[in-house]
Amino acid sequence: MNATPQTAGPDASAPGPSADSLGISAAQARNAVLEELIAKDPKQFRVLTGDRPTGRLHLGHYFGTLHNRVRLQDLGVELFVIIADYQVLTDRDVADNLTEHVEELVLDYLAIGVDPARSTIFTHSAIPALNQLMLPFLSLVSVAELNRNPTVKDEIAHSRQSAVSGLMFTYPVHQAADILFCKANLVPVGQDQLPHLELTRTIARRFNDRYGKGGAVFPQPDALLSSAPLLLGTDGTKMSKSRGNSIALAASADETARLLKGAKTDSERHITYDPATRPEVSSLLLLAALCQGRTPQEVADEIGSAGAAALKKTVTESVNEYLAPIRARRAEYAQDRDLLRQTLREGNERARAAADATLTEVRAAMNSHY
Ligand code: TRP
């Protein structure tokens, strides 16, 4: 896998949709309010978020969303983590090595501290009632709305398929079912997922208006945006599994060192933090800073004129030190296939119960309860 070089895509280096067309500033403003509510009463929140099983998770995922999930779980919020196995088929014909990828994700989740006793890890192909929600949901959105989705447009541009499948086109509606089947009201996501969340809110609102008989069947979930700025891959473009420029959580210390040694920097010797003019150097500084719990400026000042080699050495040490306990736990869990399978079995059971209850309500609301 990972065979398609995607840096040459038509819009790989274009600035992409503007912040406001994605609703980023509004979501950021809402974040502070949400954090206060979470601190006050975590029990009123149910979080759903997840990933496609296409390979191991990397540092971009970790600082972008994964560690936020564990933080929320540990604050007492109920957490559902979806392994979006059907969604793998949005941009490829077959889902290769699916079982292996699903297990890798479960390992990553357990290693970073998702606790299966408190949180629900599940695969959406195992939850029939979740998938059935997609049908009424599709009736609530127009083709024009699906056509406008900037994230889908971007994914189509990077797709491995010559023709756009119906699943690619409708997957944001499927994602609304992923979120609404358990009535999640909080979704920690990266900026690229904001259009999907907006559509989820629209679907919830329209369903309630059309079938709710004055009440609300579905909540309108909020996005919780990560506060960490985007990490770049070792080649200076967006860190992504498919671009071969990412550092996996599961990578060995040596592999990490090798990848970072080859990371792109620039020709200016003195190290400064300036994301606008020095994106590659600044992303490395940010990575070290996130691992060390300091600011990127502090890390930059410390390195100063010691140059890029010193920077890479610092980043490598910080990453390897930070990930050491996660990697150790991961290696332990990897020995215990029964635990992996049990985690998924129990998670799927819990998710099925939630989905069945919601579908029963939906049928009643739609007067199709026979
Ligand atoms: N589409 C998401 C991604 O590619 C994964 C995902 C599927 C998801 N269902 C979700 C994320 C529901 C948040 C909520 O990363």
Q: What does this protein structure show overall?
A:
With 370 residues, this protein is mainly alpha-helical. It is built from 14 helices and five strands. The chain has a three-stranded parallel beta sheet with strand order 1-2-3. Strands 4-5 form a two-stranded parallel sheet. Helix 8 (166-180) crosses helix 9 (194-211) and helix 11 (279-292) crosses helix 12 (296-303). It is globular and about 75 Å long. The site of tryptophan (TRP) has 14 residues, from strand 1, helix 8 and strand 4.
Topology diagram in text:
Layout: H1 24-40, E1 46-51, H2 59-75, E2 78-83, H3 98-112, E3 120-123, H4 128-132, H5 134-138, H6 143-148, H7 150-157, H8 166-180, E4 186-189, H9 194-211, E5 222-225, H10 253-261, H11 279-292, H12 296-303, H13 307-334, H14 337-365
Helix pairs in contact: 3-13, 8-9, 10-13, 11-12, 11-13
The site of tryptophan has 14 residues, from strand 1, helix 8 and strand 4.
| Total DSSP E strands | 5
| Mean of pLDDT | 92
Helix content: 40-55%
Radius of gyration: 21 Å
Instruction: Give the uncertain stretches in residue-range form.
Output: 1-16
Choose one word for the global shape: globular
| Bound compounds | tryptophan
Q: Tell me the β content.
A: 5-15%
Number of helices: 14
Widest sheet, order of strands = 1-2-3
Order of helices and strands: HEHEHEHHHHHEHEHHHHH
**Alpha-carbon distance between the two ends:** 47 Å
Derived structural class: mainly alpha
Largest sheet: 3 strands, parallel
